[in-house]
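Support request, please re-run this one:
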Amino acid sequence: HLGLRPTSGALSGGADSPSLRLSLQLEGREEQGGVAVPALSPTAPRPTEFLFKDVVFTVAGEPVELRSFEVRVNNRLEVAHNNSYWPSLITAGVREVEFQFAVYKTSDLFDLMRRTPPDDLSAQLTFKGAHDGTGPAGTNYTVATLQFDRLGFQDADETGSLDELVGQSVEMIVLKPSTAADEIQATFTAVA
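Re-run finished. Output below.
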């Protein structure tokens, strides 16, 4: 529907739940005529689910084992009802993209970042979903890659007590690498 816009969304996953979760908050407005639904290609992959166990996360090219993650996008839409039941106007505010993840504390990497915040970091989040042969011939999975070219470190809080593994919850803000690029570059590939 061409009148539907995402106000906010979150992609998350964790060791507590096998499947990744995508939640969206949508706003819409009534449209009159001229709306054509795009046809879905019969060879378009239809993944059944994306599993947390298949997630690979790297920071500056180095792999990081995750306990959980969440990518949040807030478009800060403002909806106006001008003498109408349906929204008359939907405008975008300043977009905010955040990335939070949890790890077991196995090094002092994020402690060092907290003491001396680094210049912007790059990171990549890759996950795959089984599509059971619904994609191009000879493929079984769709691999999705989220590329963060510019992450700004915000904070790293420790979790846990003395008699359990210590974890860290790390918060980053996702910044645009340039005025012509989006905060996150997403690519999808079909693989065997």
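The two ends are 33 Å apart (CA to CA). The first strand starts at residue 5 and ends at 14.
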